């Protein structure tokens, strides 16, 4: 208790010192224009809008909550405000005292594509942040997808430096990292398992999302706790002006969204839901059968916000999603009068947060976030037998869960046009229950037996961090973001600390060309213990503890960005080097499931990883034809003491060449064509190099790890969207084809001993299984306005 | 759970297809010795020895046999036996007819030209199991009652620590059906044969395969077994009773000798169980994609510098006829007292 109090005092002192020292940035003659950028139609605040004073050639960008602040010398200025998808707003402002201006941008008159391009170009060229991508949700929704199921994560896989893992999976393998090294944030809170259907779809319902950004390197100090990327999802706030909605029907699921004002112009809400109907379709076919199978998932997104005063606004965000699978068999044989076998499996995420925005003066924006995160995987089997008067009930339960309570306090300070300072602190209480099992046996006439197995028990830990960063315009052509993140992780038997310097710089060598560089050191205190190519829910989240050190690493990146033809084309070339320590793997030969729930502390080892590569991105931003081409040349390796005889080996998702071509062509105002072509050189596979005989069996000698390459991967996806405007809104009908030329890509590679298929017949051979061949898709969307 | 995941993927598999591909596997494979020797008190020492071959090699087992090795069995009490290769049986065997003893630890040493020296050890476990009674009870199928169901009860006095058990039920037959190319029956008036008899149990501890024991991802949906495996997870260090029921299949091969059964309860050493379990896991994935885990299944081996297993087990064999009386092979016409298992054919 004393320690907590001491820490609180220290934090308060630190904040006071920072604020005091920051006051030196301002001068007595300066004036500030501040406020919010909002959508004129919905009242939603617009993040990332560019606010630019052309006479002074200075500007800023609205923050995560649409707030901006620009301090300069008094005078009369022309202020340009722009954002992708909105008409640029020009404001003549006599700025002689501190002024608050709410800027409303109008999306209805866009068509002047030059303007949106300018906004994008300025952000990309002037921002220090490199290795960052943002794809408009509308573009994502127009791209072809499997079974018509829009998946934001699958679109992110088309960006340079991002691998997709197993075909069809929505996992992100960023610059040689693994999915657990991605900080996947939904309205500021991390999600532990953002997957449905064993990773084939992600949990993010595009109807509920306002923005998604991916940061692959040069992480600012405000982000921490993961090594490889930040995937930042921001939910829509809800329309402050009027009610509207959206509904869609696809082959796999349906979605619905409703939003509207709670109190007009002061508060709004959004509710979005998605559910599969596979189980409902199967139900009639299983009627009367001894066997029943079920499979479903759903998502529910909620958001509400309320403007308390000119300076205060609160947000409530929540997400709940679940996957559930079941199998039941009931029958009776001659010997057993009644029996009931069944098993269930499921996992769910629950995330809830309350945020309070507060403006302190016109230059300090504060945000307090209180949140709770819950993730749980559970499975059970049951066996119930009745024979005469004797009954036996046998149950096994498996459970893995995480609960986090988190609090974040962030400050953004805009002392003048040359500095944008952010600092804050964050604390999280984790409670991990990785892998526990309960076996229960209850037989007639015998005392019941309960056996609980939990390799680590419940682990409570605390994660605290402080950060400070300053985005500085040091020269008209040099901008630097320097920051530091300090963190401490404490569990019952261990304590870890970390100091993580972060640095990024942007040298603008011409009006349309910038060179960027970054360095970021990171530490990750939690691990995902996984042996699956797919996102198997038994993958265990394990905290650092005695004997398991945190993951740590650094990344250096260097890149150049060039805008051509006044922003019509954007070229980006980046190179990176990443080193990682403390990576976790199962030991050679460990049985993943048994280890997961019974013995994992004795079945793991830690090692290191290294990744490097070059990424090229060419974007075409305007015209009837838009899209991008991305190419990645990369290498990713791992080294573990007891795997592969201690020799370095390619990571399972190491891919030398990776190409994505994305094209969207507007045939008319009502018809749009989209195409995606991807190519990747073969992933490494761990296949046997020898074999031997054991009584009646042929046994394979596993051989070196990932020493062989699978065949190359490529496919073409196509879609066409037909839009029709009605008095009530808009209807979109979409047809698509996944893998249009029916390429047989390898999903699994395995040894084969079939004497008919292998030649010569007495020798084994290798086979590949191709699953996702030509798959048509159809979907309807209705947008009500 | 693996079934669920497999089922999910199988839905997609039906739309997928399998293609044979060429992979660039390195051809500098280094062969190692492979030992298969599972031993039990009362059974003469035998050992199969072969070598591993490159993956793409078309060698059969007979091509891989290593017959020129020196195979020595040692025990801490000074026991030493050198097994000799028997070309007819294609195994190494104790020419002195030595057998393992309860509770002893045995060590294996093999030297073969061109291969690294082999070492392995295993202790013969101590088993305490008793047949409690054998009886009959009727089978009820709705209103239909069939009188000929056998019930056998036995117990196991478990030693503390994790132990793995195996139960089989055999029935005497006068001849075996050969599954070789001749397809003929094996009949020898001087020999008795046995074949497996399926049995049922309402014990939820029983599993049909070693790989399903205590593995939550394999919910075992069987209640009829040719072999049952289980662990002492729920009766560690205690005595527990088991009951099995079975019905002899109608067969002309038993007409001349009647119903004679023997129930074998075995305690497996941990190495033997781990080997059998991982062989089962491995076998499930032959010719099928490894969809549950990316890394290959590694078959457990306790052979230093080689593959395979050198591991002990102990069996209690209970012989009873249809009236529950104990019987002896010799009295039924087996001159040597040896019963040949039809599984060998």
Structure description:
The complex is a heterodimer of chains A (785) and B (345). In chain A, the strands form ten sheets. Chain A has a 22-stranded antiparallel β-barrel, surrounded by four helices. In chain A, strands 9-16-17-12-13 form a five-stranded mixed beta sheet, with no helix packed on it. In chain A, strands 1, 4, 7 and 8 form a four-stranded mixed beta sheet that branches. Chain A has 785 residues and is mainly beta. Helix content of chain A is 8%, strand content 58%. The longest helix of chain A is centred in the N-terminal third of the chain and has 21 residues. Chain B is mainly beta and 345 residues long. Chain B has three helices and 22 strands. In chain B, strands 2, 3, 5, 6, 7, 8, 9, 12, 15, 18, 20, 21 and 22 form a 13-stranded mixed beta sheet that branches. Chain B has a three-stranded antiparallel beta sheet with strand order 10-11-19, with no helix packed on it. A two-stranded antiparallel sheet of chain B has the order 13-14. The mean pLDDT of chain B is 83. Strand 42 of chain A pairs antiparallel with strand 4 of chain B.
The gist of it:
Chain A is mainly beta. Chain A contains 6 helices and 49 strands. Chain A has a 22-stranded antiparallel beta barrel, surrounded by 4 helices. In chain A, strands 9-16-17-12-13 form a 5-stranded mixed β-sheet, with no helix packed on it. In chain A, strands 1, 4, 7 and 8 form a 4-stranded mixed β-sheet that branches.
């Amino acid at each position: 208790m004393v320690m907590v109090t001491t820490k609180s005092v220290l934090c308060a002192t630190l904040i006071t010192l920072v604020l005091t020292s920051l006051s030196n940035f301002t001068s007595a003659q300066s004036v500030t224009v501040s406020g919010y950028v909002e959508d004129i139609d919905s009242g939603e605040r617009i993040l990332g809008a560019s606010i630019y004073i052309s006479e002074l050639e200075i500007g800023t960008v609205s923050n995560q909550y649409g707030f901006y602040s620009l301090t300069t010398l008094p005078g009369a200025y022309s202020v340009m405000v722009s954002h992708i998808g909105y008409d640029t707003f020009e404001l003549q402002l006599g700025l002689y005292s501190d002024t608050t201006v709410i800027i409303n941008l109008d999306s209805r008159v866009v068509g002047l594509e030059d303007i949106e391009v300018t906004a994008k170009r300025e952000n990309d060229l002037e921002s220090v942040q490199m290795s960052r991508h943002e794809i408009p949700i509308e573009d994502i929704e127009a791209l072809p997808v499997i079974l018509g199921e829009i998946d934001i994560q699958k679109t992110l896989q088309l960006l340079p430096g991002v691998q997709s893992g197993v075909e069809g999976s929505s996992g992100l393998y960023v610059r040689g990292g693994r999915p657990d090294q991605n900080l996947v944030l939904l309205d500021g809170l991390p999600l532990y398992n953002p997957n449905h259907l064993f990773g084939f779809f992600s949990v993010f319902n595009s109807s509920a999302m306002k923005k998604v950004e991916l940061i692959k390197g040069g992480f600012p100090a405000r982000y921490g706790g993961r090594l490889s990327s930040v995937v930042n999802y921001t939910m829509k706030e809800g329309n402050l002006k009027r009610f509207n909605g959206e509904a869609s029907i696809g082959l796999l699921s349906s979605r619905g969204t409703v939003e509207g004002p709670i109190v007009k112009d002061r508060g709004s809400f959004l509710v979005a839901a998605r559910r599969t109907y596979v189980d409902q379709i199967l139900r009639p076919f299983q009627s009367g059968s001894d066997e029943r199978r079920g499979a479903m998932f759903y998502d529910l997104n909620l958001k509400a916000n309320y403007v308390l005063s000119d300076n205060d606004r609160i947000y409530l965000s929540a997400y709940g999603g679940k996957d559930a699978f079941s199998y039941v068999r009931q029958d009776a044989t001659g010997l057993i009068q009644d029996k009931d076998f069944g098993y269930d499996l499921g996992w769910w995420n629950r995330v809830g947060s309350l945020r309070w925005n507060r403006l302190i003066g016109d230059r300090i924006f504060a945000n307090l976030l209180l949140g709770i995160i819950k993730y749980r995987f559970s499975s059970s089997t049951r066996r119930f037998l009745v024979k005469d008067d004797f009954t036996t009930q046998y149950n096994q339960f498996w459970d893995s869960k995480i609960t986090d309570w988190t609090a974040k306090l962030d400050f953004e300070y805009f002392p003048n046009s040359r500095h944008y300072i952010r600092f804050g602190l964050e604390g999280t209480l984790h409670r991990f229950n990785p892998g526990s099992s309960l076996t229960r046996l209850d037989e007639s006439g015998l005392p019941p037996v309960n056996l609980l197995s939990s390799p680590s028990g419940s682990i409570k830990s605390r994660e605290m961090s402080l950060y400070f960063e300053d985005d500085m315009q040091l020269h008209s052509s040099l901008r630097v973001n320097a920051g530091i993140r300090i963190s401490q992780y404490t569990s019952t038997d261990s304590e870890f600390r970390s100091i993580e310097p972060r640095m990024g710089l942007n040298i603008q060598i011409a009006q349309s060309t910038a060179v960027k560089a970054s360095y970021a050191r990171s530490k990750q205190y939690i691990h995902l213990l996984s042996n699956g190519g797919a996102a198997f829910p038994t993958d265990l989240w394990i905290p650092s503890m005695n004997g398991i050190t945190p993951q740590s690493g650094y990344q250096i990146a260097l890149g150049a960005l060039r805008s051509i033809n006044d922003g019509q084309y954007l070229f980006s070339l980046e190179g990176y080097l990443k080193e990682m320590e403390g990576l976790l793997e199962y030991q050679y030969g460990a049985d993943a499931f048994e280890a997961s729930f019974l013995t994992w502390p004795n079945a793991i080892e830690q090692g290191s990883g290294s990744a490097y590569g070059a990424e090229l991105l060419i974007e075409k931003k305007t015209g009837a034809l838009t899209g991008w081409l991305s190419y990645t040349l990369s290498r990713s390796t791992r080294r573990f003491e007891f795997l592969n005889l201690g020799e370095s080996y390619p990571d399972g998702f190491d891919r030398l060449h990776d190409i994505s071509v994305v094209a969207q062509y507007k045939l008319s105002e009502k018809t749009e064509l989209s195409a995606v072509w991807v190519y990747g050189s073969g992933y490494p596979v761990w296949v046997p190099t020898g074999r031997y005989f054991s009584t009646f069996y042929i046994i394979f000698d596993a051989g070196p790890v990932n020493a062989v390459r699978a065949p190359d991967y490529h496919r073409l996806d196509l879609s066409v969207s037909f839009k029709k405007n009605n008095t009530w809104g808009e209807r979109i009908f979409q047809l698509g084809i996944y893998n249009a030329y029916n390429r047989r890509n390898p999903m699994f590679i395995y040894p084969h001993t079939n004497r008919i298929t292998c030649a010569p017949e007495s020798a084994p051979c290798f086979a590949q299984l191709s699953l996702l061949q030509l798959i048509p898709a159809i979907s309807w969307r209705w947008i009500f306005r | 759970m693996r079934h669920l995941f497999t089922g999910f993927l199988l839905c997609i598999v039906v739309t997928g297809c399998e293609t044979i591909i060429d992979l660039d596997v390195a051809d500098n494979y280094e062969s190692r010795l492979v030992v298969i020797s599972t031993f039990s008190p009362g059974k003469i020492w035998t050992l199969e020895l072969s070598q591993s071959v490159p993956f793409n090699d078309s060698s059969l087992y007979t091509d891989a046999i290593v017959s020129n090795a020196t195979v020595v069995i040692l025990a801490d009490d000074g026991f030493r036996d050198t097994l000799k290769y028997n070309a007819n049986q294609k195994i190494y065997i104790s020419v002195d007819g030595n057998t393992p003893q309860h509770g002893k630890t045995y060590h294996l040493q093999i030297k073969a030209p061109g291969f690294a020296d082999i070492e392995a050890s295993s202790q013969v476990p101590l088993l305490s199991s008793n047949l409690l009674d054998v009886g009959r009870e009727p089978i009820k199928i709705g209103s239909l009652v069939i009188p000929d169901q056998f019930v056998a009860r036995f117990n196991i006095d478990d030693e503390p620590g994790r132990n793995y058990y195996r139960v089989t039920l055999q029935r005497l037959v006068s001849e075996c059906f050969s599954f070789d190319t001749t397809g003929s029956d094996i009949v020898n008036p001087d020999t008795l044969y046995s074949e497996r008899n399926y049995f049922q149990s309402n014990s939820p501890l029983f599993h049909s395969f070693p790989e399903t024991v205590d593995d939550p991802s394999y919910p075992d949906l069987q209640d009829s077994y040719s072999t049952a495996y289980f662990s002492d997870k729920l009766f560690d260090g205690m005595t527990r009773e088991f009951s099995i029921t079975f019905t002899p299949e109608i067969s002309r091969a038993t007409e001349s000798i009647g119903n004679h059964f023997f129930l074998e309860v075995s305690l497996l050493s941990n190495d033997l169980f781990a080997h059998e379990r991982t062989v089962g896991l491995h076998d499930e994935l032959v010719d099928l994609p490894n969809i549950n885990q990316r890394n290959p299944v590694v078959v457990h081996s306790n052979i230093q510098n080689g593959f395979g297993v050198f591991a002990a087990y102990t069996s209690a064999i209970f012989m009873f006829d249809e009236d529950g009386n104990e019987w002896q092979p010799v009295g039924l016409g087996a001159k040597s007292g040896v019963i040949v298992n039809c599984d060998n054919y």
